[in-house]
Structure formats: C-alpha cells, structure tokens
Amino acid sequence: MELRELRSFCTAAKLRSMSRAAETLGVGQPTVTGHIKRLEEELGTTLFDRVKRPVQLTLAGTKLFELATPLVEGIDALAETASHAEGDGPVTLAATSDIVQHTLIPVVRAFRAEHPRVHLRVQTATRSVILTMVGAGKVDMGIVPGPDRSPEFDFQALFQYGRVLITPLGHPLLQEPLVSLDQIAPWPLILMASHTYTRATLEAEFQRRGLDYDIIVEMDSLDAIKRYVAMGVGISVGPGLAIDPEDHDDLGIVRLDHLLPVEPAGVVTLQGKSLSTPAQQLVDVMRRTLASPAGRGERRPSRGR
Predict the structure, then answer these.
(1) How large is the angle between the packed helices 277-289 and 59-88, nearest 10 degrees?
(2) Which tens digit of pLDDT belongs to each residue from 175-206?
(3) N- to C-terminal Cα distance for the chain?
C-alpha cells in the first residue's frame, strides 16, 4: 500500500468522481483508477460502488476513508511545513571581524531585502576557528580570506583580499616610494590580535626577511586601530576591504599588493555538504553584491604612493 494510492482513493472518495480526482491531483484518470484498483486487490475488497452515479463508497470504502484521510492530510501538511521551514532558514555563517564589519554589511542589506523571512545568524571568529566550525557542522558556511586547499572543504572565491599600510596623515612613509617591507618594520605597529590572517601574513614575511619589528598595541577592532593610528600612536597593516571612504580624510592609505600576497576570499563549506535553499540564495546574493568594487565599499582610490 503506497501513499499515492491512498491519496488517489481519498481524493476520489471526497469528490465522488474519478475524473475530478485526477484533475485535482494533476494526473490522468487511468492513474487514479489504477491506484484504487491496486488498493482493492491488496485489501481483498471493493471500495467503490461503481454502478451508481456519482460513485459511492462501500462500507469497507467508508471505513478506509475515515482511517486514511487523517494520515494523508497529515503527511501533506508535514511536507508543506518542511517546505516552509526550508524556505525560512535559519542560515548560519561565520566570518572574520573585518569581513563582518565591512564586506558583509551590503550583503546582509541586500539579502534581507530579497528574503525578509529568512533567519540569518552571523558569528565572528578568526580564520582558523571558522574552518573548525565549518568542519564540525556548527555553521552552514564560513567567509574567509585566503583559499583553503584542504580536501575537507569546498572553496568558492568571491573577491580579492589585499592589504594596505595605514599611517597618520603626513607620515614619512607617505613621502617616499614604498618598495620593501624593510621600510615598515622599524615603525611602532598597531595590529589585530595574534592568529588573525593579515597579522600572521605580515609577521611571516617579516620573519622570512629577518626583520625586527615592535607591536606596541593589539586590538580586536580594526576601526579602533584606525583611530589610534590617526592620533599618531603608530602605524598599521590591515585588509584593504576594511578601509571606508571617510578614512582617507584622517589617514594615509597605501596599497601593499606589490609587497604582500593578494588572495581570493570566499565561501568555505564542508566537502559534499548540500546547502539549503536559503543558504544558496545567500551565496548568490554575495556573488552579485561583491562582484564590483562599489559593492565591497571600495569607492575612493587610496592615497599615498
């Protein structure tokens, strides 16, 4: 006994017509007739009195209709509920703080406008922690700088992730061509916490070149770092995506694409994991929103040489 057979029977019993049941279910009348015939053969009884018009239920048919109707309606309601749940989310993602505070803002704005019913949950973490969360299934996806080549993950590139030097206005580094990290290392540095991606990349390059450097302030917010740099406490190196248009009024900004690697940033998901419809919709919105520099908030050219 199959669900589709019970659904055909219940629909025909309710409408008292094989043809109308077929029309309601969107199938041919022979399909409905065949379903009911197989039910009668399996149960060893007649369910409809086909002599009368419209067709009438037999006593056995009436009893089956009473028993099967709540079951069919319940399963149909369950399917509809599951469909609504799939459409409403939630979608969970984790991203580095610079991406959450800058790149992700226009994405969330566009996504909420297009899919207002979807529940979106965002967490901030370092790149390594994000990969751990994705691997453990704690989030649907991660948005991280730098590709991940581990076979455990799938990576979809969304935009390029470069770095910039951040100095006070009038700083000596703005007055000369920046051709080497040797020029940056002697200055007091204000950087994000250890294990953040840009800091790890910068320190690896310093160490590879055998350069001494002094980190005088560590912070969890690049926006706070920019304020300290503007006061003349030190200089910093951060992701270019974290530079807002108004920052150029208070800071010297120099791109470091020629000194530090420019890498793709994007979506990391667990290998083989099927994203829900809302999660895939979020990825699609990210692709459209971040396809242009304007979508990433890069509206003004950097100052400096």
Answers:
(1) 30
(2) 989 999 999 999 999 999 888 899 999 999 99
(3) 77
User: Which residues neighbour 122 within 8 Å (Cβ) at sequence distance 6 or greater?
Assistant: 92, 93, 94, 95, 100, 104, 108
DSSP per residue over 25-89, as a string?
Answer: HTS-HHHHHHHHHHHHHHHTS--EE-SSSS-EE-HHHHHHHHHHHHHHHHHHHHHHHHHHHHHH-
Helices 3-15 and 29-43: angle between axes, nearest 10 degrees: 110
Half-sphere exposure of 249 (CA within 13 A, CB side): 3
Query: In the structure, what pLDDT confidence band is assigned to residue 87 with cuts at 50, 70 and 90?
Result: low
Taken in order of first residue, the domains within the chain and their CATH numbers are 3-87 (1.10.10.10), 90-159+264-296 (3.40.190.10), 163-255 (3.40.190.10)
**Among 131, 83, 138, 140, residue whose Cα is nearest residue 282:** 140
Give this prediction's pTM: 0.66
DSSP string, 185-243: TTS-EEEEPTT-HHHHHHHHHHHHTT----EEEEES-HHHHHHHHHTTS-BEEEEGGG-
Closest alpha carbon to 303 in 163, 173, 172, 174: 174
Q: Which helix (H) or strand (E) holds 147?
A: none
**Which one-letter DSSP state was computed for residue 91?**
E
Any idea of the CA torsion for 257, 261, 264, 266, to the nearest 10 degrees?
A: -110
Counts for the chain of helices (H) and strands (E), in that order:
10, 12
